[in-house]
Amino acid sequence: MNSIDFNSKKILITGGAGFIGSNIAKFISTKFPKSDIYVFDCFRNETKLSNGNLSSFGHYKNLIDFKGTIITGNLNNKLDIENLKQYKFDYIFHQAAISDTRVYDQELIFRTNINSFYDLLDISIESGAVLIYASSASVYGNLPAPQVIGSESPENPYAYSKYSMDKIAEKFSNKYPELKIIGLRFFNVYGENEYFKNKTASMVIQLGHQIMSGKAPRLFENSNNIFRDFVYIDDVVDANIKACSAKRNGVYNVGSGVARSFQDISDILQKELKVDLGNEYFKNPYDGYQSNTQADISLTENFLSYKPKFSLEEGIRKYLPYIEKMYQEEI
After folding, report:
1. DSSP state string for 57-99
2. Global pTM exceeds 0.70
3. Which residues contact 1 (CB under 8 A, 6 or more apart)?
4. Does the annotation mark 158 as catalytic?
5. Terminal Cα-to-Cα distance of the chain (whole angstroms)
6. CA-CA distance, 231 to 235, in Å (whole number)?
7. In the chain, domain spans
8. Phi, psi angles (nearest 5°) of residue 131
């Protein structure tokens, strides 16, 4: 998967109790048992954002088998950030953020996502750590597919915060050419450990649970013409690991490179679960809804040697045991 040996290296994963962060932690700790991993996460509390969603989705259950060090802290707390400087990390995977695209509190999002990025960059500079950070395909807004690096149009505060992070990273890369700073624009990621994202979890698990409850999965009208680049979590972890030895700094798309419809998800799930419940269609309530995303991954293939391994069918097939497990726990 990668030529880097993480054994005996100090690794920081911000947002490490979240969906992608916990999967990175699991992969490195499994493949490199002598690695020294630190998960930094504020974990969930009862605080809710303006749209009613929780302010943090980090959950201890995503870390049940984790054997590294857990540091409870908040990106917006300067003392918590200052505490991280003592460890002299070799690698930083920065996954923590307010990632809800339907939150419009600009001050909160920019303080959490943008200001804290400067702090992580400072830590990287002081320790010489490789910094891999989560950007987002949301920076493309409603631009036509395929989405290409260098053509962006963010249409909500979250997307703008990620776009700003990309520009900040570019500035720091130019100023500190000896540092490795890589941004990864994730498309529609699905897979194990996303259950605790609640309403912001992927359509794969949401439709899966609807089907398991015996109900026809609910889809927007015209779902056979709404396309997304769905990328399985194992491919996303692979991209993060390979980014550590990227041939050059920059920001890269991380997707499957293939656009699939929401209708495809329903059809694949029902086929795998051996049911035929039909579908219930309802009007899309959202303005400015993306109709087609498809990652141009040519730069990612070239400079990260990234090659997605999972089709939507293969990813859902591997994911189903987790979907079923979480459904049983839910009921």
Report:
1. ---GGGGTT--SEEEE--TT-HHHHHHHGGG--SEEEE--S--
2. yes
3. 31, 238, 241, 242
4. yes
5. 38
6. 7
7. 10-284+292-330
8. -120, 115
Residue of 188, 200, 191 lying closest to 138 (CA atoms) = 188
Q: Which CATH superfamily is domain 10-284+292-330 in?
A: NAD(P)-binding Rossmann-like Domain (3.40.50.720)
Total residue length of the chain? 331
Q: What is the pLDDT of residues 38-79, one digit of tens each?
A: 999 999 877 877 777 666 788 999 999 999 999 999 999 999
Cβ pair 256, 230 in contact under 8 A? yes
195-254 pLDDT, tens per residue? 998 888 999 999 999 999 999 999 999 999 999 999 999 999 999 999 999 999 999 999
Given the residues 158, 190, 306, 319, select the one marked as catalytic: 158
Q: Which of 160, 197, 252, 319 is the catalytic position?
A: 197
Neighbours of 104 (CB within 10 A): 14
Strand 10-14 to 36-41 pairing:
parallel
CA distance 25 to 63: 8
Report the alpha-carbon distance of residue 230 to residue 312 in Å, rounded: 7
Q: How far apart are CA 5 and CA 170, in angstroms?
A: 27
Question: Is 160 in the active site?
Answer: no
